[in-house]
């Protein structure tokens, strides 16, 4: 059975340990920078996203970029 930590600070700390376990701080800032510079997200939009929501949008964006790169490769192969 799950027992919640007694104080709010402990619950918040546990949430962030679980949420960001797969991401480094450096990667977080690099991803924010890329999303702002190349895909026109605002910092406010990024900061207001829930962590899982951000993961979904980043995954969708990565998939889109891979598909676009594949289309470019196919066009270049056809021109040769």
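Q: What amino acid sequence fits the structure above?
A:
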């Amino acid at each position: 059975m799950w027992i919640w930590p007694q104080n709010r600070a402990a619950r918040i700390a546990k949430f962030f340990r679980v949420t960001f376990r797969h991401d480094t701080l450096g990667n977080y800032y690099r991803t924010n920078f890329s999303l702002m510079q190349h895909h026109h997200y605002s910092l406010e939009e990024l900061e207001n996203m829930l962590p899982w929501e951000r993961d979904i949008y980043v995954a969708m964006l990565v998939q889109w970029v891979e598909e676009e790169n594949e289309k470019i490769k196919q066009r270049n192969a056809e021109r040769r």
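Q: And what stands out in the fold?
A: The CA atoms of residues 6 and 12 lie 11 Å apart.
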